Amino acid sequence: MKTEMYAYLDGRDRVVLPSGTSNFEDAFDRWLDPDKTAIACIDMHRGHIGPEEVLSCPCPRARAKIPAHNMFHRMARAVGIPIIHVQHWQRYGGIDDLNSKQYNRMANWRVLYELYLPPNPMMDQHSWEGTKWLDIMVEEEEGDYYVRTKKRLSAFVPTDFEFLLRQLDIKNLVLTGTMTDACVISTAFDAANRDFRVIVPGDIVAGGSQEAEDAALMVISLHLGLVTDGPALIREWYARKGMTAPLELDGVVKITEASGYLEDAEVFA
Fold it and tell me: Contact at 8 Å (CB) between 206 and 65?
């Protein structure tokens, strides 16, 4: 390790990661190698985080963190880390979910949401191809990659995400985006089960609520990957490249301290 890199255990207790030559210690050094790392930004599109009053599946906590995503991704690109935009993307008309001809038509999340969310007729068209709901709402740059066949919670189902990661020779997968308690944790499980080293900057992802977000990060930290903060990752990656970390991050723990929240979004603690 080039910096005092840390992770949160149980989603709360901050522990400095060991650095050395034992198999255990060396694992963390390899886990944080920027040359073997990619960032998957999950579902940061209009249906979740657009400015409209009515969205197909609103995630206002993630909308507030659009500036945090943009800053983190921008700094990661500067050290050569690829950004992969993963999108829930369904065929127009709903054959992939809502109007499937299967006996158990409709994805589980869609049925369950009817139990506790307000009625939302726009949800029928969530992530339908050809609609505005698939507009990406975070910054995109030439050289970014896209995975546009995600049809359930995990970025691996039923997509070529793993194929792309293998072609890029990626071993360490950083997850940003929404929702921490659904798509992020589902992707973390599938990535860990495929032996990718998972990293989740908890100050950048956003869940359906603070409680759900905390619970998801706790589970990830115990079983699936490193839960840390965006600025800590940036400092370690830049140090590995012999570069000085951006001045905006001086003295900053959570990247939202530097990026702020989106002005028209509901800011939360």
Answer: yes
